Amino acid sequence: MSSPANPPLAPAMDASEASQGTLAKLLARGSAWALAGYAASQLLRLGLNLTLWRLLMPDAFGLMAIVSAVMQGLSMFSDIGIGPSIIQHERGDEPGYLNTAWSIQVARGTLLFLFAMLAAVPVARFYGNPQLGPLILVVALDLLISGFNSTKLFTASRQIALGRLTIIDLASQFSGLVVTVSIAYVTRSIWALVWGGLAATLSKLVASHLALPGIKNRFSWEPANAAVLLKFGRWVFLSTVLTFAAMQSDRLIFGKLISIAELGVYNIANVWASIPLAIVGRVFDVALFPALCRFNNDDTAFERTFRKIRRPWLILAGWQCSCLIAGGPALIRFLYDRRAADAEWIVQILAASMWLFALENANGTALMARGYPKFVAAGNLAKLLAMIVFIPLGMKLRGFFGGVVGYALSEFFRYVVSVATLAYLRVKIFRHDALMTGLVLLTTSIGLLTGRWLRAQLVSLTAHLPRLSAFIEAATIATIVGIGWALAFLRHRAQLRSAEGPGLA
Asked: Structural domain boundaries of the chain?
């Protein structure tokens, strides 16, 4: 149901090509790389998080939460969808199109750097913390450096060639980790986070130009290509502005309403709660989106592909959300000291909202592939309006706890918009989502009951080993909950094998 007003899309893949398994092989290989990269990336991320918690004070995490939110806000407020446009558009492999896109990207990064420098002092004054000014000034270099990243990164995503992309991401992340831990060990300073982040960004820049096949970018300006990029980007711009407001403003709002130390604990919980979204978001961006673009002119194939690709990854996300809701407090007790006690209930609330976010993320990917970023923007606007109502209301009724609950509730409204829009476009997935959500509730309930029973049984055996008790509780919950989701996955595989006609099974 492609609109004539939308930019030309990548040619649809015909049924014979799909039946030969070309796309299935690309997706299988791409998804495998995405999953392997996710697992390694999360191990590095969580290992760094745990190490820094022991080297730095909670205030450092709170300050960097604000700095990161400001930087992401600047980046998203100027996003014109260069990457998605290269992946989706039929000219996405042409040198003229790629170099024009790169020139726009460099100009955008330079302007963002200059604007961040101007914003540093006002932000520091707003939060009443002079440390934020110099932190933002240096972190702003991140925006300038990443603006020079090669378009080869997008070309590889367009071709669902994720092997080198995954290696580049992990290598840059590892280089940042080494720099961060080394400086933190010597200085015990928040600047370790800053310089480590810059090291990771610089590593990715170099690798994007040297480690991937493709054209060498140079400055170029072709008005026809620029017009296409900017036309597609106008709705992406609005969508990303609203995405920032919907996804990052929680840290900016709470940073004004609670102490910096409390914000640091909130950020710890958010790191764990975002794990389910990290994997599905990565797979949907690098595998589902380019795959759906190939079927954009075939409604039946589009819906079939969408259902088959999203389901196994939502099963994985559902298992993770159930484990975090039921076993998140035990996990926090096992990994952190009492300074992070409030993260126990925060991670449960945020993990519940992340399930809705995972569903909506899949829906948003489908809408982008159909050339309708404006509907993604509408969903983000719905969440933003809900946040404006529910966060202040929650803070008034129950303080910080109520504010977090209000933030979590706002996710429901974005999901409703995405489901309704897909139904309008004849892609009906609500019934499937309702069944999956029921399974999340069931497995979470089993996990909570298991945890309560275990705590009662272990209270005397592990009276002097509370962390051992927490570990046993978290591991048992994950195992019990995993059984239910494993059965769901096996049922899904059986359905695929018994399906008739060409497909992706």
From this structure: 274-497
